[in-house]
Amino acid sequence: MKTFIIRRRNAWKTPQELENTAGLATRVGNEEMPDEVRWIRTYVLEEADGTLGALCIYQAVNEEALREHARRAEMPADEITPVASTVVIREDSGREIRAA
Q1: pLDDT 10s digit of each residue in the chain, 100 long?
Q2: Matching Pfam families, A to Z (predicted)?
Q3: How far is 46 from 53, CA to CA, in rounded Å?
Q4: Which of 6, 7, 68, 92 is the most exposed place for a label (fewest CB within 10 A)?
Q5: Could you tell me the pTM of the whole model?
């Protein structure tokens, strides 16, 4: 699998909407597409208009699988960018929400 970053712009109005979508996305990935898509982590963003957006890190067989996962999970996939490499200076220290 390859690693990708997905930008989801202005996707949710409230944290509850985001949480509901995360549950659906987890189920779709784990139950319907486990050999095609793996959700690694998401950075939730405060958009200028007050909505919530996200930068999501996924592993997938290809971009089309990510678009299909987004469609099934009823969320946008505005930009999908392949990751060329990773440089880790230190581990994240932000607030984390663990998905089950």
Answers
A1: 999 999 999 999 999 999 999 999 999 999 999 999 999 999 999 999 999 999 999 999 999 999 999 999 999 999 999 999 999 888 877 666 665 5
A2: SCO4226-like
A3: 6
A4: 92
A5: 0.86
